[in-house]
Amino acid sequence: MSNFSLKNMMTRQDVLGFLVLAILLLVIMPLSMDIIRLTQFGKYLSFAFVAVGLVLCWGYGGILSLGQGVFYGLGGYALAMFLKLEASSPENTAIQSTPGIPDFMDWNRITELPWFWEPFNSFTFSVLAILIVPTIFAYFIGFAMFKRRVGGVYFAIITQAISAILTILIIGQQGYTGGVNGITDLRTLLGWNIRSDYASYVFYFVCVALLFVCLFIAQFITKSKLGRILVAMRGQEDRVRFSGYDVANFKIFVFCVGAAFAAVGGAMFTLQEKFMSPSFVGIVPSIEMVIFCAVGGRLSILGAVYGAIVVNVAKTYFGESFPELWLFAMGALFIGVVLAFPDGLAGVYQKYCAPTVDRFLDKAPVFKRYSGDSSYSPSEPAKAS
Amino acid sequence: MTMHKQSTTGGATGRWGLGKLKLLAASMVLAATANAAAPPTAEVNTTGLAVTDDTVNVGILHSVTGTMAISEEGSVQAEILAIEQINAMGGVLGRQIEYIQEDGASDWPTFADRSRKLLRQDNVAAVFGCWTSASRKAVLPIFEQYNGMLYYPTFYEGLEQSPNVIYTGQEATQQILAGLNWVKEEKGAETFYLLGSDYIWPRTSNKIARKHIEDVLGLEVVGEDYFPLGHTQFNSAINRIRLKKPDVIYAIIVGGSNVAFYKQLEAAGIDLTDGKTTLLTISVTEDEILGIGGRNIEGAYAAMKYFQSLDNPNNEAFVKAFKERWGEDSVIGDVTQAAYLGPWLWKAAVEKAGSFDIDKVREASPGIELTTAPEGYVRIHENHHLWSKTRVGRAMANGQYEVVFETDELMEPDPFPEGYQ
Amino acid sequence: MFSDYTATELGSIFAMQGFAGLILFAVFLLMALGLAIIFGQMGVINMAHGEFMILGAYMTYLTSNLFAEYLPGLFDAYFFVAIVVAFLASAALGAFVEWAMIRRLYHRPLDTLLATWGLSLLMQQSYRSIFGAREVGVRIPDWMAGSFPVTDIVELPINGLIVMIIAISVTFGVYLLMFKSSWGRRVRAVVQNRPMAGAVGINTVKVDRMTFALGCGIAGIAGSAFTMIGSTGPSAGQQYIVDTFLVVVFGGAASLLGTVASAFSISQAQSTMEFFLGGSMAKVLTLMTVVIILMVRPQGLFTLKVRK
């Protein structure tokens, strides 16, 4: 990868895909929606982070985690804890028996800020914690499991159990976590009112920008040697192992990246919704996050973004119009995607749209310099230049 | 991508289209019977709420889907019934109430989303809704930010008093203290065992109960236990209870766990009807008994402000109207009645204020009284909670409660009870 | 905490506590047996397992209503009929699901997980549409309610006894079926070497379908039994997923004996901790212990195959 260039990293289809997504998220959406809908949309995008991470873990690494909600939650809580402390200044909480601590602690007769809350007074620490805490946690899980060569199915079940444990813990330890209510009533970020419409616009664009950062990282990983090893591993793990690679390390790495992405998504959720709740940590949301990825196409990082958007928009639309049909639609979606469209939206695009787009691109002068190789197929290693 | 985009806005226009159509139909009907007394819109609505000459929009925000749908269904029905009755009486300030119903889907962020839509997009004059504390906590900042008015029906843990919420259910002390006093006097109880599902309402309520039992009544708490929501295995807990032999089991268990708890309690040989052990709960209304089965809970006592079996003319009319509207089989629990009060309290406040403006309604609210409430007489306190009586009912095999006690006076709501925190 | 009590009292409490643990064991065993067959023998992750149990529970509810309506004289005996109905209904649905969905996914185990999750959503909403969102109370005959006094303090819950009897019978039945019948031999042959089993003339397609149906049917029996102790609502099935999977995985996926041992150890641990620590912490600690043990020893307690 010494002479790494844009051309190696992205096919012209990829470039086009990134451009279209950028225009959609940065121009079309903000212009066509009022701020309420846009914030809602930003919330969907926070799930796209998780879905992109799952493409790496599941699509490329063959690791299906049913515990992504854990990392999403950890990221969201890390930021929410900081914001909550800022909202709980002694002046704001003067009516409490112990002013200066979050309101839910006061309700639970806690009179002193618990030690693990203390560092969250620092903004720098909190931002770092969003990335580091979930990553370390993922590292431990990954290390314990992949080093022992735990198979995909077992891994799925154990991550699921972990998300169940964390949910019970958060809900049970409400004096320290806010319990089932979550952490609510967040007001300012470094003194800046996060409830204004202006702030909502800013957060939306921050969210989109970070999403693109994650997308580029993911694109880099999939197109690098690492991506190819992952794909090879998914197919024939033993052969990769016999070739001298430490398979477990690759899996741990990609699982950690997925966890970090999910955590950033969770933090983006906290910023835009102004609260965090244990309802994202449990089993059901964690499995729903997998479906975002499956609908988009488990091998396509851009597809994952669309998958998250489409499923969530559908959920909101059905939820508003035909609530009782929603579970039916969702159930059918799971089954349909698995049985009929295992490659999701991206697969449909590859099959029906990509050839046409290619012909069109051949004529477009901008894309002239990208000649030849345009067939994007992640299951095949990209040609090395 | 463009396709899904269209579907969103398409959905939105569809809804609006329907709303407009309804408005049109309503105004045509009303044009014939134009209410000359109705004050002009410009006067009663100075803040851009969805009020026309003939109609006013309000929101109903409950879970229709998900795990909470079971509990919230009754509240939705009660609120719709109240709105329809008010409309039949000529509406509020000469305007027919139109409600926009949104589904919180048992998911707190969704509640926040929908409340934002109701307040900012639909500009509703009031919202009747929420059930769990978590959903209320999720929407509270939004109601405060956009200055909306929420009528919240559930009995809850207290420790809250928002200018933008009217709490039509009991806060914890109202529900707990009188019940404990009663059980001491009537049953001569001396030892208590506190149980609860593991979240804020049971924990806070038990905290208040413990304070009252130990500090005020001078009695003893011999145990306290919590279970994850949805827990179904209570045999070990029941053994602990048997070991401690409390006079009173004070149970605040919610949802599906209830069914398992009462069935296993009965199977473990703790017979609630034999008078040896008293079980006092504040979480089981007639609604929950449907799932538990009347026979399994027969003999338990519940402290609430309302039971379907209350014997007064208001309640008779209410139960009759409710069954006519929602079917002969429907049962009415404490929260359902509290939800029914919401639209009526709002109507009274609007009429007293002579305006739909949120600020004026808020100002007019304290002191509003309702003599037609099914539970009897209620009045809004300065702190936005209701003065109401506390009653104790004994569960019967047919799923109803038999009222065995009611406080003489209205209980004062005290969301921040001193000495109980 | 024990100083205040006499020795007899303590003895009785421990006896009853032991019994509570056994009831929990029976519950876990019933939950896990069906899944152990499906997951252990076929490698299929059936996330809708809880919903199959609830199907059994609703069948029991319907049966009890039918008896109350048309055969009130035989109401005392309806439960036996209900168990059979629950088994047949769940097994039939299981066979259909295998035919329509699972058989296309045998080579993609993670995908069956997603598809069966979708199935569980469909089933939940169907229950909600058919039986209503509210929990239904299943009336149990008088002789099955109440308790059986052994001494003054020790009383054994009758419904717990019945659940235990059902669990033991089902386990024994499964054992006979899997290890003593020709059908069981065929199932084991298919598990060990599918192409070879096919080559010697075993109809592997049929074996798969019957195995899946059997697993679902047992889930139905479990659901039917649980109407005596738990709640029956559209989404009650989801409560069981984590526990069920952990029991099966902890036991070692392909081993029936492992499932029994794991159900026993998890239930005893949980019920003891519950007695001392209360419900919430006991649950967390039990789950955590199991997860940590599984991280150290991923193959579970008993295993036929080392490493996947």
TrEMBL record, chain A:
It holds the Pfam family BPD_transp_2. CDD domains: TM_PBP1_LivM_like. It is found in: Cell inner membrane. The chain crosses the membrane at residues 15-32, 44-63, 123-146, 153-172, 201-221, 242-269, 289-313, 325-342. Keywords: Cell membrane, Membrane, Transmembrane, Transmembrane helix. NCBIfam families: urea_trans_UrtC. This is Urea ABC transporter permease subunit UrtC. It comes from Marinobacter confluentis. The lineage of its organism: Bacteria, Pseudomonadati, Pseudomonadota, Gammaproteobacteria, Pseudomonadales. The gene is urtC.
TrEMBL record, chain C:
The keyword Membrane applies. The chain crosses the membrane at residues 20-40, 52-71, 77-97, 158-178, 212-233, 245-264, 276-296. GO terms for cellular component: plasma membrane. It comes from the Bacteria. Signal peptide: none annotated. Its main location: membrane. Keywords: Amino-acid transport, Cell membrane, Membrane, Transmembrane, Transmembrane helix, Transport. GO terms for biological process: amino acid transport. The keyword Cytoplasm does not apply. Pfam families: BPD_transp_2 (PF02653). It is a multi-pass membrane protein. It is found in: Cell inner membrane. InterPro entries: ABC_transp_permease, ABC_UrtB_bac, BCAA_transport_permease. Belongs to the binding-protein-dependent transport system permease family. LivHM subfamily. This is Urea ABC transporter permease subunit UrtB. The gene is urtB.
